[in-house]
Specification:
Helix content is about 65%, strand content about 5%. The chain is mostly helical. It has 2 domains: about 5-75, Arc Repressor Mutant, subunit A, CATH 1.10.10.10; about 80-250, Four Helix Bundle (Hemerythrin (Met), subunit A). The chain has a two-stranded antiparallel ribbon with strand order 1-2. β1 and β2 form a beta hairpin.
């Protein structure tokens, strides 16, 4: 039998350990076995084990600690890391905040539709959205909190839609757009009370449609609201005052 080359051995080891992490056999914060133990388990050379650790570390699945407290600690994949990775890819393609917000304007209304379609919306959707709106009302006069409170409603709209794929993918785009939006409005707070009240009213109408189970109305309100807020943010921040005209992955945390 032809002997496997070292990189191939490392990939096999990494694949086995990756499967242990992704299937839950290894939990967040668990320590991987020592390299010497992995050497015995897989019957390969230590260089192959070390290369497997480098592969997993590059993927963000483990943190390799050196020194007296050395070893590899498991880190599960997170939506935040996914968002930053997508942001980096978008930045290499010179994608703009307008690209991201344009995508959200078309697909986020589907999250509102799904929220309204959930049979358990009275317990799993409505209370969370109502609490977000109550926070918006309570802190309406605090301009420093306006953007974060408004974005939280949209994040919940995605988180509670019930479709795990949409939660991850659309949630990543939400995170990227929120980072850009915060960079704009933290510098230039939205002082127009009328505009802020209209946005809050849109959230309230969206909640009412979701609570009634009116999928079409929920999606329509969400679409119109997103179009309006998108125009406002892009007009204030797109490429102005030295702001980057493209997505800036450094604004997105996670890695």
């Amino acid at each position: 039998m032809r002997q496997l080359r070292q990189p191939r051995l490392a990939e096999i080891i990494a694949a086995s350990l990756r499967d242990d992490i992704l299937t839950g056999k290894l939990k967040e914060g668990d320590s991987l076995p020592r390299q010497e133990d992995l050497f015995t388990r897989f019957r390969v050379s230590l260089p192959a084990v070390r290369e497997a650790m480098r592969i997993l570390e590059t993927e963000g699945l483990v943190e390799v600690r050196r020194g007296n407290v050395g070893g590899a600690v498991v880190h599960l994949p997170t939506a935040e890391r996914t968002a930053q990775m997508i942001a980096m890819v978008l930045q290499t393609r010179s994608a703009t905040p307008g690209d991201v917000s344009g995508a959200l304007a078309r697909i986020e209304p589907e999250c509102a539709r799904l929220c309204a379609a959930r049979e358990d919306r009275a317990t799993q959707v409505v209370p969370a959205l109502r609490a977000a709106i109550e926070t918006q009302r309570a802190e309406f006069g605090d301009l420093s909190r306006y953007n974060a409170n408004a974005r939280r409603f949209h994040e919940l709209l995605v988180e509670r839609c019930g479709n795990e794929t949409m939660i991850l993918v659309i949630g990543a785009l939400e995170t990227i757009w929120s980072a850009h939006e915060s960079a704009v409005w933290d510098e230039v707070p939205p002082e127009d009370e009328k505009t802020r009240r209209i946005a809050l009213g849109d959230h309230e109408r969206m909640l009412a449609a979701i609570e009634k189970g009116d999928e079409q109305a929920a999606a329509a309100i969400a679409g119109a609201h997103l179009a309006a807020t998108r125009r406002s943010t892009l007009a204030t921040g797109a490429g102005a005052n030295g702001r980057p005209a493209t997505i800036n992955a450094n604004l997105v945390g996670g890695l």
